[in-house]
Amino acid sequence: MMHAIMPICGFRDPHCWPNSCNLNLYEDGGMSVGWHSDDESLFQGKLVDIRILSLSLGARRKFELRANWPEEAESTQPKSVMLSDGDMMTMEGMTQKHFQHRVPKEGHVDGPRINLTWRWTVRHTPRCPCRGRR
Ligand SMILES: O=C(O)CCC(=O)C(=O)O
Ligand SMILES: [Fe+2]
């Protein structure tokens, strides 16, 4: 799958490809993911400019983004985008520091959706077998 997707995203050299992938299955519109930032320390997204590449497959679902600062989040509406089968979306720069995102419940959606997010793990634990590789 990466051989098909990464060149389209501008990553021709496999050495530059993401080294981790997270897969979420939403069986229907009753399944969701709440407000969060992808701020795990292994990706360093709160500290440095990072990229997350997201592929959506299956049912069309709403993806929302809001400010990560309580005052601003209360005074502004979340931004939303509909993600359809085959759509690629990226979160770049300091998105994980300044924004939160979610996939809300949508009762009328009855089909499954799979979301893959490719990321670059940059901070490895001492026991991680990938430590020392890029
Ligand atoms: O399903 C999506 O589009 C987003 C998933 C997500 O936010 C995550 O896996 O961290
Ligand atoms: Fe996320």
Automatic annotation (TrEMBL):
UniProt cross-references to InterPro entries, sorted A to Z: AlkB-like (IPR027450), AlkB-like_sf (IPR037151), ALKBH3 (IPR032854), Oxoglu/Fe-dep_dioxygenase_dom (IPR005123)
PROSITE patterns for this protein: FE2OG_OXY
Pfam family, one: 2OG-FeII_Oxy_2
Keywords carried by this UniProt record: Dioxygenase, Oxidoreductase
Fe2OG dioxygenase domain: residues covered: 17-126
GO molecular function: dioxygenase activity
Protein name, UniProt field: Alpha-ketoglutarate-dependent dioxygenase alkB homolog 3 (Alkylated DNA repair protein alkB homolog 3) (MAbh3)
Source organism per UniProt: Durusdinium trenchii
